[in-house]
């Protein structure tokens, strides 16, 4: 009885103590309930009470904690590694969402090969799978979006469509994984994930008789997680109204090949070059135009084949999409998807449509410059594989690396440097020549010349227009004359600011050209695209010496042409810099015209007549010219004259042609237009004109002539000038009927030297 009384007393005391502490305990429990996201899990909270609920996101909506990742791995399928073992290789893309800080899901799309033994053929597969995710770090230590390392478990199911020796099959399985996630920044992470799976389904040779086949794999990859709106905006850069054009371009090179090759196809990959230009329309989305050209593998006896691919890509900037627009981040990743068009030589269709996709990983060296790595995959129509891959069908893959440049607001970032640019002499003339070599064909030794005029319109960017020509010696000869347009961007200025006294300035170049050319037949049009580098050494305030290696792709248009071919040139030249534009109302009294606006000139020199020069044996002709002219201002003038071309005939023709031309020309003093220096003695003139030409040959008919060229003039005392004048004239072929070229036009190029007297 005493024992019962004692027990009741202790129980009553316990109840009283519990009741007296109930308000405090209730307050503590109400604060901790459903709040392990803040305080973590505490085992004492689960003693003598109902277990706490799972932590929740506030105002959770579908996809607001979205993540995207991609990775690759190696695997061991249904076998132990032994002699001759080959591991499987696979890649996958995953996307998912966190429903709570602890619980989430993901869906995965992948493909690759299963491991095999030496001598066995590969088993290929494509897969789709879904996993349940549990974040152990958030469960045990509380939710912390700034945590550097997280441990995540995954349980899921997978379906594979397999192929082995042209036999298709289906495999189903269950899998479990443990992922170690390393957060590089709030929205970017790396992961390493060992994974174990059990599969059942179709059996292939080497699978054995067991019902379930195990696979152990190890995967690594990169992922992005979506930040909240507040997190994305915190510290982000405004996309609009910051002076940036959001333009970018890049150059690169790499290797490409067919992912699946036939027995008759060479197995090694081939190199290619690439150029792209693009613009971001929003912080996350942009467009990009990309061109690639290179060789592809040999099939049977067909070799030296070239492939060009152009694509228009939609660019999705994953950094901006998941973490806000931050162009100053060191690492940037973009997804590119869009239509593509391939051009192939030695193929029937020539053009093949397709679609491409790739990733661009960019590492910033400066706000404008970065180096990138880009893997790409293309799928073209089956006809491309039939013609270029000997009927083997599959994706066309490439891996490229290179440099990318992004246009910024130079005047905002470098105000003093921009003021120096406004005071500098930013217009220029250039003259260069060099050696050239064409691949794909026997063209022999070659050379190129360029005469250009340009202007630096920003501290970084310049444009240049050129008159140019190519000549190659091997029969049947290759000759082009045309006009080019180049864009140059100063790498030195973009990385170190504008400096007009810099000893060496390195620029990149991209350009196009077009004109007329000849190869084993009549004159035809030609088109060209090119990229290169421009390295200028400062000799003095007005003169630079430059070297310019170029890589071009060009082709004649018409029946008689050798097709598209890459061409390499190394140009060496001089660049003459001009000053600021003169005013329209400037006078003549203080100029070189002070002692006379009228002039008479006499010139002579070698000439190249297309009907006798383009095919061997090539002959050099001669020309003389006399002209009378007048300067209306320091900039503009006219002249009228008579030109006699004495054509060196070929042995198979009769009478020597003599072409007479009466012409009228407009003269533009570009030096005085750009720099009103009255003490200048050296001048560069532009010339355009027209006239009437006729010859001494029987059945010759008069025809209209058009000409264009330039003149380099130096003033001597007492009104005498000396000059060198390269000029090209175009005539209808009716003026030389006994020298048919098969073209509707014939051309005469002259390099004239002479004297002028001003009075």
Question: What tags apply to this protein structure?
Answer:
single chain; 759 residues; mainly beta; 34 strands; 11% helix; 55% strand
Write the layout of secondary structure elements.
Elements: H1 2-20, H2 22-32, H3 36-39, E1 66-77, E2 85-86, E3 88-98, E4 103-114, E5 116-117, E6 123-135, H4 136-141, E7 149-164, E8 167-185, E9 188-201, E10 213-225, H5 229-233, E11 247-258, E12 270-280, E13 285-296, E14 305-317, H6 318-323, E15 331-344, E16 351-364, E17 369-380, H7 382-388, E18 396-406, H8 410-413, H9 415-423, E19 427-438, E20 446-456, E21 461-472, E22 478-490, H10 491-496, E23 504-518, E24 523-538, E25 543-557, E26 565-578, E27 598-609, H11 610-613, E28 621-631, E29 636-646, E30 658-669, H12 670-674, E31 682-695, E32 703-715, E33 720-732, E34 745-758
Antiparallel strand pairs: 1-3, 1-10, 2-5, 3-4, 4-6, 6-7, 7-8, 8-9, 9-10, 11-12, 11-18, 12-13, 13-14, 14-15, 15-16, 16-17, 17-18, 19-20, 19-26, 20-21, 21-22, 22-23, 23-24, 24-25, 25-26, 27-28, 27-34, 28-29, 29-30, 30-31, 31-32, 32-33, 33-34
């Amino acid at each position: 009885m005493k024992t019962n009384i004692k027990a009741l007393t202790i129980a009553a005391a316990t109840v009283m103590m519990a009741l007296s502490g109930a308000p405090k305990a209730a307050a503590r429990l109400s604060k901790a309930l459903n709040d392990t996201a803040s305080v973590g899990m505490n085992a004492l909270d689960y003693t003598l009470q109902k277990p706490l609920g799972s932590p929740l996101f506030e105002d959770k909506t579908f996809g607001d904690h979205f993540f995207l990742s991609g990775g690759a791995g190696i695997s061991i399928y249904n076998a132990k590694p032994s002699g001759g073992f080959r591991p499987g290789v696979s890649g996958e893309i995953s996307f998912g969402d966190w429903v709570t800080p602890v619980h989430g899901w993901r869906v995965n799309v992948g493909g690759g090969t299963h491991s095999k033994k030496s001598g066995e053929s590969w088993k290929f597969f494509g897969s789709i799978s879904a996993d349940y995710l549990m974040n152990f770090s958030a469960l045990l230590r509380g939710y912390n979006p700034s945590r550097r390392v997280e441990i995540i478990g995954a349980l899921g199911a997978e379906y594979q469509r397999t192929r082995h020796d042209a036999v298709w099959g289906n495999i189903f399985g269950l899998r479990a994984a443990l992922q170690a996630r390393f957060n590089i920044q709030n929205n970017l992470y790396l992961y390493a994930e060992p994974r174990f799976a059990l599969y059942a389904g179709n059996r292939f040779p080497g699978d054995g008789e067991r019902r379930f086949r195990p696979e152990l794999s190890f995967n690594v990859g990169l992922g992005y997680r979506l930040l909240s709106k507040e997190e994305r905006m915190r510290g982000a850069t405004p996309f609009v109204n910051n002076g940036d054009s959001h333009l970018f371009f890049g150059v690169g090179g790499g290797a490409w090949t067919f992912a699946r090759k036939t027995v008759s196809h060479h197995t090694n990959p081939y190199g290619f070059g690439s150029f792209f230009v693009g613009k971001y329309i929003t912080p996350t989305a942009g467009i990009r135009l990309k061109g690639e050209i290179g060789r592809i593998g040999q099939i049977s006896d067909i070799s030296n084949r070239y492939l060009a691919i152009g694509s228009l890509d939609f660019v999705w900037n994953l950094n901006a999409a998941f973490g806000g627009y931050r162009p100053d981040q060191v690492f940037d990743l973009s997804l590119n998807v869009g239509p593509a068009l391939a051009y192939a030589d030695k193929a029937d269709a020539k053009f093949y449509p397709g679609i491409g996709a790739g990733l661009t990983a960019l590492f910033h060296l400066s706000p404008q410059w970065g180096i990138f790595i880009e893997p790409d995959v293309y799928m073209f129509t089956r006809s491309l594989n039939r013609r270029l891959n000997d009927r083997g069908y599959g994706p066309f893959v490439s891996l490229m690396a290179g440099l990318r440049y992004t246009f910024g607001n130079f005047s905002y970032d470098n105000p003093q440097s921009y003021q120096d640019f406004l005071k500098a002499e930013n217009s220029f003339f250039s003259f260069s020549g060099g050696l050239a070599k064409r691949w794909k064909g026997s063209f022999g030794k070659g050379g190129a010349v360029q005469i250009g005029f340009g202007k630096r319109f920003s501290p970084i960017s310049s444009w240049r227009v050129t008159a140019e020509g190519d000549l190659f010696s091997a029969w049947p000869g290759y000759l082009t004359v045309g006009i080019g347009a180049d864009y140059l961007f100063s790498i030195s200025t973009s990385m170190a600011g504008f400096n007009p006294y810099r000893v060496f300035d390195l620029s990149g170049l991209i350009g196009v050209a077009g004109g007329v050319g000849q190869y084993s037949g009549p004159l035809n049009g030609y088109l060209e695209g090119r990229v290169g580098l421009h390295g200028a050494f400062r000799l003095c305030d007005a003169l630079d010496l430059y070297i310019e290696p170029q890589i071009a792709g060009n082709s004649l248009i018409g029946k008689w042409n050798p097709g598209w071919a890459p061409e390499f040139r190394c140009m060496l030249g001089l660049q003459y810099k001009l000053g600021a534009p003169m005013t329209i109302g400037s006078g003549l009294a203080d100029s070189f015209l002070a002692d006379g606006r009228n002039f008479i000139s006499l010139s002579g020199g070698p000439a190249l007549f297309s009907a006798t020069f383009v095919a061997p044996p090539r002959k050099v002709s001669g020309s003389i010219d006399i002209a009378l002219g007048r300067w209306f201002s320091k900039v503009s003038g006219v002249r009228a004259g008579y030109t006699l071309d004495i054509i060196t005939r070929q042995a198979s023709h009769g009478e020597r042609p003599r072409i007479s031309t009466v012409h009228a020309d407009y003269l533009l003093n570009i030096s005085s237009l750009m720099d009103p220096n009255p003490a200048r003695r050296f001048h560069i003139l532009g010339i355009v004109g027209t006239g009437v030409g006729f010859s001494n040959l029987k059945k010759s008919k008069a025809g209209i002539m058009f000409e264009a060229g330039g003149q380099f003039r130096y003033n001597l005392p007492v009104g005498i000038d000396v000059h060198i004048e390269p000029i090209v004239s175009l005539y209808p072929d009716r003026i030389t009927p006994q020298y048919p070229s098969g073209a509707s036009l014939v051309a005469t190029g002259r390099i004239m030297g002479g004297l002028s007297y001003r009075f």
